[in-house]
Amino acid sequence: PYPGPRAAGADVFRSSYSLGASMQMSNQLAPSLREACRRWASRPAITFHGGTITYDELWGRVERLAFALQDLGVGPGDRVICQLPNCPEHVIAIAATWAVGAIHVGTDNDLTGPELARLVGQVAASALVFQARPGSSDPLSPLRAVAESAPGIALIFLGTPGLDHGDALDTGALALQRFEDLIQADLASKG
Predict the structure, then answer these.
(1) pLDDT tens per residue, range 45-64
(2) How far, CA to CA in Å, does 25 sit from each of 7, 75, 143?
(3) Is 81 exposed, middle or buried (0-12, 13-18, 19+ CB in 10 A)?
(4) Which of 4, 117, 145, 188 has the most CB within a 10 Å radius?
(5) 103-106 and 79-83: which strand pairing?
(6) CB neighbours of 110 closer than 8 A, spacing ≥ 6?
(7) pTM value?
């Protein structure tokens, strides 16, 4: 489970990026999304596989993941690699990355462990948001390759069918954060 915010980081994010604060940053995509989420809070923002997320729900998830990224050490100018399929979580990860002033790096969803590890090194990524390929016999193999080549990287794993429970995975020595846990965190404790 997500351990909670760092005291100093949470205050900086809350004062600069919460729904009620004005954002002063050169990247105008996150503030534009925040404003759209405020303006159309109850309207559908994303419809995917028969489910709908409202703009208010979307921003709540973006904000919680942004806090988590900060708590994991991601800040302005850092790179966050997202190896995710087209899904709402990818939109959330991109927007959260922008909200903390970091740079989103998209990838091919079929990169092998060594290819992903090489990309992490090439872009000096601070975090990796990852979803295993469906049907993979060893879904964590790419993350092990990344952890070996970049020991300090924050690894965030998006559950997949059959792999939704962290306790069902043998993570070994990998320090993984579950995406689903990060976007469910309680914002009240963050200031």
Answers:
(1) 999 999 999 999 999 999 99
(2) 22, 13, 32
(3) buried
(4) 117
(5) parallel
(6) 133
(7) 0.79
